[in-house]
Design a protein that fits this description.
Elements lengths: L7 E5 L3 H13 L3 E6 L2 H11 L3 E4 L8 H11 L4 E6 L4 H9 L4 E4 L4 H12 L9 H12 L18 H11 L4 H8 L3 H15 L4 H10 L6
GO biological process, one term: regulation of DNA-templated transcription
Pfam families: GerE, Response_reg
Organism: Streptomyces sioyaensis
Amino acid sequence: MNEQPALKVMVVDDHPMWRDAVARDLAEAGFEVVATAGDGLQAVRRAQAAAPDVLVLDLNLPGLPGVQVCKQLVGARPALRVLVLSASGEHADVLEAVKSGATGYLLKSASTQELLDAVRRTAAGDAVFTPGLAGLVLGEYRRLATEPAPATPDEPGAPQLTDRETEVLRLVAKGLSYKQIAERLVISHRTVQNHVQNTLGKLQLHNRVELVRYAIERGLDEV
């Protein structure tokens, strides 16, 4: 029986004791900790070399802020998943992190088990947030949807989505996780991921933030 390869994780935090503790917890849970870093510039260099599946990232970093680290790395490698682990629950920090490409946002008050679960779900493509923050982010998506969109993927000649892709997109816009979508549609988690990736490619979008904005602009979350 083939075993799944361990998820590769990198931990970025400027506090050595906290960084080491998180890395140790992840390693003991079976993750492969491929790198750690204590400042923003170091984080960018090491992440580019180590190619982690998930980056566990603090926002308050010397050298280069966490949101810039996230923006640079996700811009260069869109498949990278970023889970922000921060002491700040300020709404502005949460929204800035999501706009920079973070997949999830967890407060440092979370338990070890919550962190481990969040890393696994982030790797699977779910948007993971400390309770209370998910509604904030969805509200921001709705606000963004009232602004003009930079892309016009539904111009004549643009690729058309299949009925199933549209169905998945509608559920993403409603804030459902990939796991919840899979259960709702009675399909596998991987099939949901494939539909999302195909939709991103067809619409020439880059991440879940842009995808939800696209869906809300077209009223798919209200259907």
